[in-house]
Structure formats: structure tokens, C-alpha cells
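Hello Y.,

Per our agreement to keep a running log of every chain we model this quarter, I'm adding this entry. I've kept the format consistent with earlier entries: sequence first, then predicted structure.
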Amino acid sequence: MLSRRIIPCLDFEGERVVKGVNFQDLQDMGNVVELGTAYERQGADEITMLDVSATPEGRSHTTTTVRALRAQLSIPLTVGGGVRSVDDARALLDAGADKVSVNTAAVRDPSLLDRMSAEFGAQCTVLAIDAKRDGSSWQILTHSGSEDAKRDAIEWAEEACTRGVGEILLTSFDRDGTGAGYDTELLRAISSRVEVPIIASGGAATTQHLIDALSAGADAVLAASIFHRREFTVGDVKQALQDAGIEVRP
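Predicted structure for the entry above:
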């Protein structure tokens, strides 16, 4: 088993990090570059930054903010939001991203995943799935959680893997920002059906929540609120995972 990764998430608008509940009522949490570099100093394995207003506003990603963070950051950086084409993905990689995350555009045109993987490699191609529980299953949401794609999340994850994605960023819409813990049923359901690494997202409030997500099949855990509100440092989280017998990177 590979060491598990701890990934702080920077949802942002412009140069400011924002955070809400169920993708709504966003509050300012600080400057992108300041928070990103602080988390690297704390021991973050990677940083994920998502332009949360790019797709709803129908625009491409703001590469200026990506360049500003990359200039100060040495750890891997995943960037998403507003990616609608291979050219959009290329622009983010040119700006300093190591991996590009895509959601809405891939649901509309799944062949985008094939093209991105062929052009940049699976290691650069990340599928973001925002999943909302619907009885005993989960449906995909697009446009930053505002639209129901009417498609089963597990089936979509399986198809995406055949199209060359190297990783899945799996967010529970129902748990996002609630502090209720990750949706471990969702994690088990998808991790049992695909072989690519799964990043758990949505709902972390305690270190036990992260332990539960990793035990449920996640290969990495992404969190935002617990770090932005300074409830835990990345170092605190890593120590708790080590104490629970989970291998983490130094």
C-alpha cells in the first residue's frame, strides 16, 4: 500500500479562497498564495485549487492565480474549474498545474477525457465527480453543484476509467462543508469498482473522519474547512493518521 496523501483544497474566486456548505453561501477564507504556501510548510503532499465560479459564469479558468501560486509552491498542484477543452487543460499545465481536473465538460462530452489522456497522459487527467445521494445510489451534479446530470455516479466513474483518467476526485455534495464526515458508503461503492486512486472530498471535521475515509477505500483525503479555520494543521492530521497505523508521507 502506498503512503496516503493529505491534500488541502483551495476553492477560489479571483485571488481569494472561499468555502461554503453544499457549495453555497461562500465565505472568504484568505489569499490563495498565502494559504497554499502555508499548507506546504505544514507538510501537505499536494494542493488542489478549484475555480468555483468559472463554469457557472461560462468562462475559462483564471491562469493568473495558478501562476502566482506555482511561483511559490514546490509540491504537486491539481487545478480545475472552467476546463472545457484540451486547450483549456494545456493552458493550466502551462501555467504550472501538474494535473488538471475536469467535471462538467467531461459529462457533456466524455471523449474529452480520451483526448486529455492521449495528449497529456493519465497522470495529468483527473475526473472530478460531485455526487448527490439519491436513495441507494448517487447522481452526478455539474456546474458547481447547481445542475443534476441525471447520471449514475458509479457508472460514470467506471466509464471514465476506460477513457484514461488517472485519478478521481470524489466529492459528496451532501457532506460538503457540513462537518458530518465523508460519505464512506459512496467511497466504498466507487473504490470497489475502479482501480485508479480515489481522493475523498466533502465533510471532514475531525481526524477520525479522515481515518474513516481511508479505511473505506480512499487513497488520499482532501479537506478545506478544517485547515482554513485552523482547527488542525496538516501536521496534526498526519500525526493522527500515523497513530492509527496509517502510513503517510513525511
